[in-house]
Amino acid sequence: MSLGIFALKGKKAVVIGGAGVLGSVIAKGLGKAGAQIAICDIKDTVEVVEELLNEQIEAKGYHTDVLDPEQIKFCHDQVMKDFGQVDILLNAAGGNVKGATTSAEMNFFDLPFEGLEKVIALNLFGGAIFPSQVFGETMVKNEEGGSIINISSMNAFRPLTRIPGYSAAKAAVSNFTQWLAVHFAQEYNKKIRVNAIAPGFFLTEQNRYLLLDENEKLTARGETIITHTPLGRFGDPEELIGACVWLASDASRFVTGTVIPIDGGFNAFSGV
Prior knowledge:
alpha/beta; Rossmann fold; 7 strands; about 40% helix
């Protein structure tokens, strides 16, 4: 068997949240493997699309709000008009907010419903369920199948202190990933696979304030994370690409319903 099974040439990939830090990097990796890329985000996609085009990757940007199913449907119709098919769906929208995070100023008992609701809605509904409903309905018609990749988190395995909403949402994403993998295979198309990656600690716009101080030095929380990560560092977003290309390609055609940790060993370390 040749390494050609990892190739994505001719595949059409939709990256929801593709203008974000992790989504844009993974999108480039999928494109380098041969896929054509649709970048879908509530943020401006121009810069990301231009970067992909400069890398000789066929790409186009689309505006969508993942918390609005009607906008996702409109985005889907535009993508289908331009690309004609969807083979890969990467659900990379998500994040945390201070309103769902405990702190010295905000204890658990005072966490506002609005903050918790926003984080759970963004990561579970917008970050997995809604796009899978809209794009999945088209993908299950593919004779050659397809691959849906969700983004879970280390919080799904080991809930971290201070972020109850995000931890609960990502645990739900992992559970939904397994449920959808079984449902699609049993009810619609045995060639549609649904998996997730569970990144460990990567510096993003959402978590930087928790991990680094104003001088870009590790906070106490950041130091604890590094101490409990056997590889001794935060991850580089590019280190997510390999697993995603594998999950998107024929190299993983017998893999579905899995959640793959990409965490520098964090989940394996007991602390002793």
